Amino acid sequence: MNKILPLAVAMGMLAVPCAQAAPETAVNTSFDNTSYSTHSSQFSTAEAKRDLAYKLSGQYKQLAPLLHQQIDQYQLNAPLKTLKRSKRSAAFARNMMETDMVLRDKKGITDYTNEIMELRLADPQMLARWQAGQSPLFAWEPDGNDEDWQYIEAYDVDGNIHLLDVYEAPDRPVLVVDTNSREELKAGIKAMNDEIKRLQGEQPEAAPAPRAMAMTMDAATPSISTTVLKKIRLKDDHEPWISGKAEIYAIVTGVNPSRDEPVLDIVDMPYLDYSETDYSPEQIMIYWDRYRWSAADVLLMEKDDGTNYKELASTLLDVAKAALSAYPDPEVKAYAIIPELTNKVLAAIPDSWMTNDDDFVDVYYTIRQGKRYKDRQGANNNAQATFAPLTIDPTK
C-alpha cells in the first residue's frame, strides 16, 4: 500500500514529468466552483466534495479553532452535526448539509441515516504537525475505480491545487471532505437487506412479546445451527491513504430451503479496518436455517464511494435469480449451483453503480454446515480465515 507511483498529469497545458515524481506537486490554479450544482443531472460525488474542499480552503482560518477543538488523538473527524452547532461554520455547514442530502438520496439511504458528511484528518501521523500549526491541504476522493487514479488533488489555503501521490501520503496534514464510511455502510447494509426482502416479498418478522417468547422456550424449541467467523486476516484492504480505514462487508449466497430462489444476506464486518492484522470477531456469518443443502458461499467486499445500495441489491438479486433459473431442476446439481450464483453476483458488481466501484476482496466457496475450516485461504488468496460450527440452544 506504500507503492509510489509516478505523477503524469495533464491539466490544461501543464505536464508533470515522470522523472519528477513526488508525493506532492503544487499547481497554481483554482476551481471554478460557479459551474457546480448539487441539483445537476450530471451530479458527481467527487465534484460535490471538490466544491466543499474549495469552500473550506477559503474559510479555513475561520473554522480552524472549531476543528482543533473537535479533532484530536481520540477522534480524527469532525462530523456535520458538530459543524452545524457552531456559528463559525454556519455558511460552510449549510453547503455541506445540501451535499449531504443529495448524497444520501443518491446512495439510497435517506430513510436509514440522518447525515453522513464529515471532515477527516487523513492519517493519525499528521495530527502532531497539524496541531503544531502547519497549514493543511484540503482533499477529496476522485471519481472512478481507485486502481485507475493517477493522483489525489488537494487545495491549500490560497486556493492552489496540489497533486498528491495516490499511495504515499504527503508530509503535510490533509483534511479530507468525505462521508463517514462506517455510518454510510451501516445504513447501506440495512437498505440492501430490506430491499432484497421487499423484492422477494418477505415481511420483517415482528418480535414476540417477552412473555410470549418465554412461553415458547420449551423442550420443543429447536436449536439454531450457525457458522462463526473465528479469525480473519487480509493481505490487502484495497484502500489508498486518502480513503482511511477499510469498510468490509460480506455477501453470503445460497439457495432458499423452501423455494427455488437465491438467498443473499449482507453481513457487516465493522471491526475489519486494516490489512496485515489479525481479528478474532466470533461473528455469526451463516444461519443455516436460511439455506438449502447445508452449503453457502461468502463473498468479501470493500465499500467505496459511489454505491447506490438499493440499486446494488436489486442488481445482485436479479443476476442471482437469472443464474438459478437456468436450471429447471436445481436439485440435480444441488449445492454445486451455489458457486455459479456467486460468480454471477461477482461479475455484476463492477458495473452496477455510479463511481469508485466497490472492491472485490476475496471469496470463500462452499462453506459447509457443521464443518470447521482452520486458516483457510480465500480463492483470491487475499484473505485467511477460520470458520467453525456453533449450535445455539434455546434459553432454559
From TrEMBL:
Pfam family, one: DUF3103
Domain of life: Bacteria
Key words of the record: Signal
Range of residues in the leader sequence: 1-21
Stated name of the protein: DUF3103 domain-containing protein
Source species of the chain: Photobacterium marinum
